Amino acid sequence: MSTSRTITLNGIDMFVREQGQGPLVLLCHGWPELSYSWRHQIGALAEAGYRVVAPDMRGFGQTSAPAGIDAYTIFHTVGDMVALVGALGESRAAIIGHDWGAPVAWHAALFRPDIFTAVAGLSVPPPRRGRARPLETLRKEGIENFYWQYFQEPGVAEREFEADVDFTMRAVFSKGFSDTGMSQMMRPGMGFLGDRSISRPLPPWLGEDELAVFVKAYRASGFRGGLNWYRNLDRNWDLTAPWQGAQIRQPSLFIAGSEDEVVTGLIGAKRIADMEKVLPGLRQKLVIEGAGHWVQQECAAEVNASLIAFLRSLT
Fold it and tell me: Taking the domains of the chain in order of start, what are their residue ranges?
Protein backbone atom coordinates (compact mmCIF):
# COMPACT_ATOMS: atom_id res chain seq x y z
CA MET A 1 0.00 0.00 0.00
CA SER A 2 1.19 3.49 -0.77
CA THR A 3 1.59 6.08 1.96
CA SER A 4 1.27 9.84 1.68
CA ARG A 5 2.86 12.90 3.23
CA THR A 6 3.50 16.57 2.55
CA ILE A 7 7.03 17.81 1.83
CA THR A 8 8.14 21.46 1.88
CA LEU A 9 10.27 22.20 -1.19
CA ASN A 10 10.97 24.95 -3.70
CA GLY A 11 8.81 27.41 -1.75
CA ILE A 12 5.67 25.25 -1.69
CA ASP A 13 4.18 22.35 0.27
CA MET A 14 3.90 19.30 -1.98
CA PHE A 15 1.61 16.33 -1.25
CA VAL A 16 3.04 13.01 -2.44
CA ARG A 17 2.03 9.37 -2.58
CA GLU A 18 4.91 6.91 -2.33
CA GLN A 19 5.57 3.21 -2.27
CA GLY A 20 8.43 0.76 -2.73
CA GLN A 21 12.20 0.57 -2.53
CA GLY A 22 14.79 0.77 -5.27
CA PRO A 23 15.66 3.26 -8.03
CA LEU A 24 13.51 6.38 -7.81
CA VAL A 25 10.68 6.90 -10.30
CA LEU A 26 8.65 10.12 -10.30
CA LEU A 27 5.12 10.15 -11.76
CA CYS A 28 3.84 13.57 -12.89
CA HIS A 29 0.10 13.89 -13.55
CA GLY A 30 -1.68 16.29 -15.87
CA TRP A 31 -4.83 18.44 -16.00
CA PRO A 32 -7.36 18.16 -14.46
CA GLU A 33 -5.91 15.33 -12.43
CA LEU A 34 -4.11 14.35 -9.23
CA SER A 35 -1.44 11.98 -7.99
CA TYR A 36 -4.41 9.60 -7.63
CA SER A 37 -4.43 9.31 -11.43
CA TRP A 38 -1.41 7.00 -11.03
CA ARG A 39 -3.20 4.63 -8.61
CA HIS A 40 -2.81 1.71 -11.04
CA GLN A 41 0.90 2.37 -11.59
CA ILE A 42 2.21 3.12 -8.09
CA GLY A 43 1.78 -0.39 -6.70
CA ALA A 44 2.73 -2.14 -9.93
CA LEU A 45 6.01 -0.25 -10.29
CA ALA A 46 6.78 -0.66 -6.59
CA GLU A 47 6.26 -4.41 -6.84
CA ALA A 48 8.62 -4.42 -9.83
CA GLY A 49 11.39 -3.07 -7.61
CA TYR A 50 11.18 0.71 -7.75
CA ARG A 51 10.72 3.55 -5.29
CA VAL A 52 7.70 5.29 -6.75
CA VAL A 53 6.68 8.84 -5.82
CA ALA A 54 3.66 10.58 -7.33
CA PRO A 55 3.07 14.20 -6.30
CA ASP A 56 0.05 16.39 -6.57
CA MET A 57 1.71 18.87 -8.92
CA ARG A 58 1.99 22.59 -8.20
CA GLY A 59 -1.50 24.12 -8.01
CA PHE A 60 -3.31 20.78 -7.83
CA GLY A 61 -4.98 18.82 -5.05
CA GLN A 62 -3.32 19.12 -1.66
CA THR A 63 -0.18 20.84 -2.99
CA SER A 64 0.21 24.61 -2.65
CA ALA A 65 -1.33 26.82 -5.33
CA PRO A 66 0.64 30.11 -5.42
CA ALA A 67 -1.40 33.22 -6.22
CA GLY A 68 0.59 34.59 -9.13
CA ILE A 69 0.09 33.28 -12.66
CA ASP A 70 3.82 33.64 -13.26
CA ALA A 71 4.50 31.09 -10.50
CA TYR A 72 3.51 28.24 -12.85
CA THR A 73 6.20 28.37 -15.54
CA ILE A 74 8.04 25.32 -16.81
CA PHE A 75 10.99 26.47 -14.68
CA HIS A 76 8.83 26.31 -11.54
CA THR A 77 7.31 22.92 -12.34
CA VAL A 78 10.62 21.33 -13.33
CA GLY A 79 12.23 23.03 -10.34
CA ASP A 80 9.68 21.30 -8.12
CA MET A 81 10.76 17.91 -9.49
CA VAL A 82 14.45 18.72 -9.01
CA ALA A 83 13.72 19.77 -5.44
CA LEU A 84 11.60 16.67 -4.86
CA VAL A 85 14.45 14.36 -5.85
CA GLY A 86 16.70 16.14 -3.36
CA ALA A 87 14.07 16.17 -0.61
CA LEU A 88 13.73 12.41 -1.02
CA GLY A 89 17.46 12.03 -0.37
CA GLU A 90 18.17 10.92 -3.94
CA SER A 91 20.39 12.24 -6.70
CA ARG A 92 18.96 10.40 -9.73
CA ALA A 93 15.49 9.51 -10.95
CA ALA A 94 13.52 8.30 -13.92
CA ILE A 95 10.67 10.69 -14.60
CA ILE A 96 7.33 9.82 -16.20
CA GLY A 97 4.60 12.31 -17.07
CA HIS A 98 1.09 12.27 -18.52
CA ASP A 99 -0.74 15.17 -20.18
CA TRP A 100 0.75 18.39 -18.68
CA GLY A 101 3.01 16.17 -16.62
CA ALA A 102 4.64 15.01 -19.87
CA PRO A 103 6.09 18.45 -20.74
CA VAL A 104 7.40 18.60 -17.18
CA ALA A 105 9.07 15.22 -17.62
CA TRP A 106 10.44 16.06 -21.07
CA HIS A 107 11.83 19.41 -19.90
CA ALA A 108 13.21 17.91 -16.69
CA ALA A 109 15.22 15.50 -18.84
CA LEU A 110 16.23 18.35 -21.14
CA PHE A 111 17.26 20.78 -18.39
CA ARG A 112 18.83 18.33 -15.93
CA PRO A 113 20.15 15.18 -17.61
CA ASP A 114 22.48 14.78 -14.60
CA ILE A 115 19.43 14.06 -12.42
CA PHE A 116 16.81 12.62 -14.75
CA THR A 117 18.50 9.69 -16.40
CA ALA A 118 15.45 8.33 -18.23
CA VAL A 119 12.13 9.82 -19.29
CA ALA A 120 8.71 8.65 -20.44
CA GLY A 121 5.86 10.78 -21.73
CA LEU A 122 2.24 9.72 -21.99
CA SER A 123 -0.24 11.37 -24.38
CA VAL A 124 1.83 14.50 -25.08
CA PRO A 125 4.80 14.31 -27.48
CA PRO A 126 8.19 15.81 -26.62
CA PRO A 127 8.66 19.56 -27.09
CA ARG A 128 9.67 21.07 -30.39
CA ARG A 129 10.00 24.78 -29.80
CA GLY A 130 8.37 26.60 -32.69
CA ARG A 131 9.44 29.82 -34.34
CA ALA A 132 6.95 31.96 -32.42
CA ARG A 133 4.94 31.96 -29.20
CA PRO A 134 2.17 29.31 -29.24
CA LEU A 135 -0.76 31.67 -28.70
CA GLU A 136 0.67 34.15 -31.19
CA THR A 137 1.01 31.34 -33.72
CA LEU A 138 -2.64 30.36 -33.30
CA ARG A 139 -3.76 33.94 -33.90
CA LYS A 140 -1.59 34.26 -37.01
CA GLU A 141 -3.22 31.08 -38.34
CA GLY A 142 -6.63 32.68 -37.84
CA ILE A 143 -7.57 30.47 -34.90
CA GLU A 144 -9.42 32.28 -32.11
CA ASN A 145 -11.39 29.49 -30.44
CA PHE A 146 -8.83 26.85 -29.44
CA TYR A 147 -9.22 25.71 -25.84
CA TRP A 148 -5.78 27.08 -24.90
CA GLN A 149 -7.15 30.52 -25.77
CA TYR A 150 -10.37 29.97 -23.82
CA PHE A 151 -8.32 29.14 -20.72
CA GLN A 152 -6.31 32.39 -20.82
CA GLU A 153 -8.68 34.89 -19.18
CA PRO A 154 -8.54 34.32 -15.40
CA GLY A 155 -11.91 33.35 -13.97
CA VAL A 156 -13.70 32.36 -17.18
CA ALA A 157 -12.93 28.64 -17.26
CA GLU A 158 -12.89 28.53 -13.45
CA ARG A 159 -16.52 29.67 -13.34
CA GLU A 160 -17.57 27.07 -15.90
CA PHE A 161 -15.79 24.19 -14.17
CA GLU A 162 -16.59 25.13 -10.57
CA ALA A 163 -20.31 25.66 -11.18
CA ASP A 164 -20.80 21.87 -10.94
CA VAL A 165 -17.59 20.00 -10.18
CA ASP A 166 -19.25 16.59 -10.37
CA PHE A 167 -20.50 17.32 -13.90
CA THR A 168 -17.15 18.79 -14.90
CA MET A 169 -15.20 15.70 -13.90
CA ARG A 170 -17.75 13.37 -15.50
CA ALA A 171 -17.60 15.40 -18.71
CA VAL A 172 -13.80 15.50 -18.82
CA PHE A 173 -13.35 11.79 -18.16
CA SER A 174 -16.26 10.58 -20.31
CA LYS A 175 -15.45 9.27 -23.77
CA GLY A 176 -16.07 11.32 -26.85
CA PHE A 177 -15.98 15.00 -27.66
CA SER A 178 -18.06 15.33 -30.81
CA ASP A 179 -21.18 13.63 -29.46
CA THR A 180 -21.48 15.97 -26.46
CA GLY A 181 -20.38 19.27 -27.93
CA MET A 182 -17.04 19.05 -26.14
CA SER A 183 -14.17 19.98 -28.41
CA GLN A 184 -10.69 21.42 -28.43
CA MET A 185 -12.28 24.14 -30.54
CA MET A 186 -14.74 26.21 -28.51
CA ARG A 187 -18.24 26.61 -29.91
CA PRO A 188 -20.13 29.87 -29.25
CA GLY A 189 -21.88 29.80 -25.89
CA MET A 190 -20.88 26.20 -25.18
CA GLY A 191 -17.73 26.64 -23.12
CA PHE A 192 -15.29 23.75 -22.88
CA LEU A 193 -17.71 21.17 -21.49
CA GLY A 194 -20.26 21.35 -24.29
CA ASP A 195 -23.99 20.69 -24.00
CA ARG A 196 -24.83 20.24 -20.32
CA SER A 197 -28.16 18.62 -21.16
CA ILE A 198 -26.40 15.54 -22.52
CA SER A 199 -25.70 12.81 -19.96
CA ARG A 200 -22.05 11.93 -19.38
CA PRO A 201 -21.90 8.27 -18.30
CA LEU A 202 -18.62 7.19 -16.77
CA PRO A 203 -16.31 5.09 -18.92
CA PRO A 204 -15.85 1.47 -17.80
CA TRP A 205 -12.37 2.18 -16.41
CA LEU A 206 -13.62 4.75 -13.87
CA GLY A 207 -15.91 3.89 -10.95
CA GLU A 208 -18.14 6.23 -8.99
CA ASP A 209 -15.90 5.87 -5.95
CA GLU A 210 -12.87 6.80 -8.01
CA LEU A 211 -14.63 9.80 -9.55
CA ALA A 212 -15.56 10.93 -6.04
CA VAL A 213 -11.86 11.31 -5.16
CA PHE A 214 -11.38 13.80 -8.00
CA VAL A 215 -14.62 15.65 -7.24
CA LYS A 216 -13.79 16.06 -3.57
CA ALA A 217 -10.31 17.35 -4.35
CA TYR A 218 -11.47 19.90 -6.92
CA ARG A 219 -14.32 21.13 -4.76
CA ALA A 220 -11.66 21.94 -2.18
CA SER A 221 -8.98 23.36 -4.46
CA GLY A 222 -10.88 24.83 -7.39
CA PHE A 223 -9.36 24.83 -10.86
CA ARG A 224 -7.27 28.03 -10.82
CA GLY A 225 -3.91 26.41 -10.11
CA GLY A 226 -4.03 23.95 -12.98
CA LEU A 227 -5.40 26.51 -15.44
CA ASN A 228 -2.48 28.79 -14.64
CA TRP A 229 -0.21 26.24 -16.32
CA TYR A 230 -1.94 27.12 -19.61
CA ARG A 231 -1.52 30.83 -18.90
CA ASN A 232 2.24 30.40 -19.15
CA LEU A 233 2.36 28.89 -22.64
CA ASP A 234 3.87 31.99 -24.24
CA ARG A 235 6.06 32.73 -21.22
CA ASN A 236 7.45 29.20 -21.40
CA TRP A 237 8.33 29.76 -25.05
CA ASP A 238 10.30 32.85 -24.05
CA LEU A 239 12.07 31.07 -21.20
CA THR A 240 13.13 28.04 -23.22
CA ALA A 241 14.91 29.99 -25.98
CA PRO A 242 18.34 28.58 -24.94
CA TRP A 243 17.11 25.06 -25.74
CA GLN A 244 15.95 25.81 -29.29
CA GLY A 245 16.60 22.67 -31.35
CA ALA A 246 17.99 20.73 -28.38
CA GLN A 247 17.56 16.97 -28.11
CA ILE A 248 16.66 14.76 -25.16
CA ARG A 249 19.32 12.07 -25.38
CA GLN A 250 18.48 9.89 -22.38
CA PRO A 251 16.60 6.61 -22.88
CA SER A 252 13.00 7.56 -23.56
CA LEU A 253 9.54 6.09 -24.05
CA PHE A 254 6.32 7.45 -25.52
CA ILE A 255 2.83 6.03 -24.93
CA ALA A 256 -0.49 7.30 -26.25
CA GLY A 257 -3.96 6.15 -27.23
CA SER A 258 -4.95 6.05 -30.89
CA GLU A 259 -8.22 7.85 -30.10
CA ASP A 260 -6.61 10.65 -28.09
CA GLU A 261 -7.58 14.01 -29.58
CA VAL A 262 -4.47 15.56 -28.08
CA VAL A 263 -2.38 13.25 -30.26
CA THR A 264 -4.52 13.40 -33.39
CA GLY A 265 -5.55 17.04 -33.08
CA LEU A 266 -4.19 20.46 -33.94
CA ILE A 267 -0.94 20.37 -31.97
CA GLY A 268 0.04 16.76 -31.28
CA ALA A 269 -0.34 15.36 -34.77
CA LYS A 270 2.49 17.58 -35.99
CA ARG A 271 4.92 16.11 -33.47
CA ILE A 272 4.15 12.39 -33.39
CA ALA A 273 5.63 11.17 -36.64
CA ASP A 274 9.12 12.61 -36.24
CA MET A 275 9.65 12.61 -32.48
CA GLU A 276 12.86 10.62 -32.98
CA LYS A 277 14.43 13.90 -34.09
CA VAL A 278 13.96 15.15 -30.53
CA LEU A 279 14.40 11.74 -28.86
CA PRO A 280 17.42 9.96 -30.36
CA GLY A 281 17.28 7.58 -27.39
CA LEU A 282 13.65 6.58 -27.98
CA ARG A 283 13.21 2.92 -26.98
CA GLN A 284 9.53 2.51 -27.87
CA LYS A 285 6.66 4.48 -29.34
CA LEU A 286 3.55 2.66 -28.15
CA VAL A 287 0.18 3.73 -29.54
CA ILE A 288 -2.57 1.67 -27.89
CA GLU A 289 -5.33 1.01 -30.38
CA GLY A 290 -8.73 2.30 -29.29
CA ALA A 291 -7.44 4.02 -26.16
CA GLY A 292 -8.23 7.63 -25.33
CA HIS A 293 -6.42 10.40 -23.50
CA TRP A 294 -6.51 9.02 -19.95
CA VAL A 295 -4.34 6.14 -21.05
CA GLN A 296 -2.72 5.08 -17.77
CA GLN A 297 -6.14 4.80 -16.13
CA GLU A 298 -7.91 3.33 -19.15
CA CYS A 299 -5.27 0.76 -20.18
CA ALA A 300 -3.38 0.20 -16.94
CA ALA A 301 -2.10 -3.29 -17.78
CA GLU A 302 -0.59 -2.29 -21.13
CA VAL A 303 0.88 0.92 -19.75
CA ASN A 304 2.35 -0.83 -16.70
CA ALA A 305 3.93 -3.55 -18.82
CA SER A 306 5.53 -0.98 -21.11
CA LEU A 307 6.78 1.17 -18.24
CA ILE A 308 8.25 -1.78 -16.34
CA ALA A 309 9.96 -3.15 -19.46
CA PHE A 310 11.40 0.29 -20.16
CA LEU A 311 12.65 0.78 -16.60
CA ARG A 312 14.20 -2.70 -16.50
CA SER A 313 15.94 -2.06 -19.81
CA LEU A 314 17.88 0.77 -18.18
CA THR A 315 19.98 -1.61 -16.11
Answer: 3-313
pLDDT digits (tens, 9 = 90+) for 99-152: 999 999 999 999 999 999 999 999 999 988 989 999 999 999 999 999 999 999
Please state the φ and ψ torsions of residue 3, each to the nearest 5 degrees.
Answer: -115, 170
Active-site residue set: 99, 293
pLDDT at 177 over 80: no
CATH number of 3-313: 3.40.50.1820
pLDDT reported for residue 261: 83
Q: Which runs of consecutive H residues, i.e. helices, occur in the chain?
A: 39-47, 74-87, 101-111, 134-140, 147-150, 156-162, 165-173, 208-221, 224-230, 233-239, 261-264, 269-272, 295-298, 300-313
